[in-house]
Amino acid sequence: MKTTKNTRNLILVAMFAALTAIGAFIKIPIPYVPFTLQYLFCALAGVILGSKLGALSQIIYVMVGLAGVPVFTEGGGLSYVFKPTFGYLIGFIVAAYVIGKIREKIKELSFIKAMGMLLAGLFFIYLFGVIYLYVSYNLYLGQPMSLYFAFFNGFVLCISGDLILTAFAAYVAIKIVPIFKRFGYI
After folding, report:
1. Residue range 15-48, pLDDT digits in tens
2. What is the pLDDT of residues 49-97, one digit of tens each?
3. What is a single Pfam family found in this protein's UniProt entry (predicted)?
4. 153-162: b or e for each residue (b if 16 or more CB lie within 10 Å)?
5. What is the CATH number of the domain that holds 149?
6. Are 90 and 132 in contact (CB under 8 A)?
7. Which residues pair with 35 in a beta bridge?
8. DSSP-derived 3-state class of residue 146
9. Is the dihedral of CA 180, 9, 107, 118 positive or negative?
10. How many CA atoms lie within 13 A of 80 on its CB side?
11. What are the tens digits of pLDDT across the range 4-21?
């Protein structure tokens, strides 16, 4: 029984790492930070896998990309750490953990609770993303950027699409979590 559960967890963690990679290639290019489906799969990883395994799926995704596999929106490799958008990838790890942790504490998931849980995770993606965007432009890219400009381009231009994804993920969560609970997967 334990081997079956471990195997299932291994498969799900790998699947969500792969889905996040696929989400990187489904993108709408906007200046500085492209809109992708990565957040959707990161959020669902936290919802379905929980805090530790959800975060692990995102850690694997980031590690595979840093190892040189071109799974990020603009390729891969260790030098990706110097891309202004790398902070969002760090945020995915934290967001999956936060979303999973909140979901683990919720007894009965409603749409409102799911939205709150997902928005908490999204907050951390933008927190890490905007700060990293600002720091990267000002410290090592040598292109001065105001905090307002980083906030506008890294948050304001992107948030509407992510709010739509949040609502969609919340809808999926309220449908799928009871099924996973019924079968003892979460």
Report:
1. 999 999 999 998 877 776 778 899 999 999 999 9
2. 999 999 999 999 999 999 999 999 889 999 999 999 999 999 999 999 9
3. BioY
4. bbbeebeeeb
5. 1.10.1760.20
6. yes
7. 28
8. coil
9. negative
10. 23
11. 889 999 999 999 999 999
Tokens of 182: 């019924």
Query: Both tokens of residue 41?
Result: 């799969």
Residue 9 backbone phi and psi in degrees, to 5? -65, -40
The helix-helix angle for 157-182 and 111-135 (nearest 10°) equals: 140
Convert the pLDDT of each residue in 99-119 to its tens digit: 999 999 999 999 999 999 999
Four-residue CA torsion sign, 75, 79, 85, 90 = positive
Domain count, the chain: 1
Q: How far apart are CA 107 and CA 109, in angstroms?
A: 7
Cα–Cα distance measured from residue 79 to residue 90, given in angstroms and rounded to the nearest whole number: 15
Tokens of 181: 């609970």
Q: Within the chain, where are the H helices?
A: 2-25, 38-66, 86-105, 111-135, 147-151, 157-182
Alpha-carbon distance of 182 to 133, in angstroms, equals 42
* Closest-CA residue to 41 (of 10, 72, 16): 16
Q: Give me the domain span that covers residue 94.
A: 2-182
DSSP letters spanning 1-38: -HHHHHHHHHHHHHHHHHHHHHHHHSEE--SSS-EESH
